[in-house]
């Protein structure tokens, strides 16, 4: 910047004003500065600017992704919101590995991100010790919080969603209902399963042990689980799948057995991923507002950055039933 200022015959502050467009500079001086920038092939240093401003305009996001499209759709909402608000996003995928999770967390914090979004639904979350070394970094937990982090928490009411899905099957006339639940080391999977149990108990419906299968929230897990249920001497007539990815896998298993959804077996999912309305038949599911979740998380994080003394909030998003054609009324 000093070289640009010297060549243009102006002060470094004038160069800064021209680059940042934060103060009026005459047209002739602006032209001299721009010519000097072009001649010297000068590019502003984001690092230098962040040191001076004590802000990097960067948000870090730590999440466990998989083949499940739900995560990609949430990240899409986060990225869009970051872009619209002038922030860059650094994304770290933990792949469910605790050691990798803590290493990625340390890396993001060392890079001096302005704030941190965490979406790792494992019951065992990132190191509290690592977070405690950077107490000034605002944090928003998305859908999960294993300890008192002091940050904001945004959650889907998964228990209510599990209840809603199961109650819908019961009201459709089903009594033989199975559940393909997600992994119970993930809090949303736990809550959805508990919602299923609560609705079945409220309706005084018994659940054979073999009607409960714990899977992995993946396409293949739903396929394998559905095959096990279809092999039973008395297979269920309806399925609550803990997420849409497993519901898609269940569809494939039903198809390979020469059966049809919903004529032979009804299926309801959870998440309302982009693929759901394009299944054959379109999948009835519980809608999670994924874009809203991403936007709300970014907005809340930026609010936390600007208002570090504000008290922490728990924001709960309400799930909604999306009725399509995968459940047949009896």
Automatic annotation (TrEMBL):
Domain called HTH lacI-type: residue spans: 1-53
Q: Which InterPro entries match?
A: HTH_LacI, LacI/GalR-like_sensor, Lambda_DNA-bd_dom_sf, Peripla_BP_I, PurR_sensor_dom
Any one Gene Ontology MF annotation carried by this entry is: DNA-binding transcription factor activity
Give the signal peptide range: none
Methyltransferase keyword on record: no
Lineage, top-rank taxon, reads Bacteria
Keyword rRNA processing applies = no
Q: Tell me the protein's name.
A: Ribose operon repressor
Source organism per UniProt: Providencia stuartii
**Keywords on this record?**
DNA-binding, Repressor, Transcription, Transcription regulation
């Amino acid at each position: 910047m000093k070289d640009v200022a010297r060549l243009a015959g102006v002060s470094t502050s004038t160069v800064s004003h021209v680059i940042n467009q934060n103060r009026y500079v005459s047209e002739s001086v602006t032209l001299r500065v721009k010519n000097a920038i072009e001649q010297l092939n000068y590019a502003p240093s984001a690092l230098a600017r962040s040191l001076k401003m004590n802000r990097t305009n960067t948000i870090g996001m730590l999440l466990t992704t998989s083949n499940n499209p739900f995560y990609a759709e949430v990240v899409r909402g986060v990225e869009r919101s970051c872009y619209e608000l002038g922030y860059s996003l650094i994304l770290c995928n933990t792949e469910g590995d605790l050691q990798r999770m803590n290493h990625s967390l340390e890396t993001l914090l060392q890079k001096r991100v302005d704030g941190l979004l965490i979406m790792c639904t494992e019951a065992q979350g990132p190191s509290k010790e690592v977070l405690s070394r950077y107490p000034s970094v605002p944090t928003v937990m998305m859908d999960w919080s294993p300890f008192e982090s002091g940050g904001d928490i945004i959650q889907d009411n998964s228990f209510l969603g599990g209840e809603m899905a199961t109650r819908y099957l019961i009201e459709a006339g089903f009594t033989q209902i199975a559940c393909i639940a997600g992994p119970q080391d993930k809090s949303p999977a736990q809550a959805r399963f508990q919602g299923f149990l609560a609705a079945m108990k409220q309706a005084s419906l018994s659940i054979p042990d073999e009607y409960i299968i714990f899977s992995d929230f993946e396409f293949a897990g739903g396929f394998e689980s559905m095959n096990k249920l279809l092999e039973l001497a008395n297979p269920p007539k309806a399925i609550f799948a803990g997420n849409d990815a497993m519901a898609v896998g269940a569809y494939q298993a039903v198809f390979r057995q020469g059966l049809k959804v919903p004529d032979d077996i009804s299926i309801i999912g959870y998440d309302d991923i982009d693929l759901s309305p394009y299944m054959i038949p379109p999948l009835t599911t519980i809608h999670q507002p994924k874009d809203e979740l991403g936007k709300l998380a970014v907005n809340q994080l930026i609010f936390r950055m600007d208002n570090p003394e504000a008290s922490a909030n728990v924001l709960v998003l309400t799930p909604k039933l999306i009725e399509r054609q995968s459940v047949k009324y009896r």
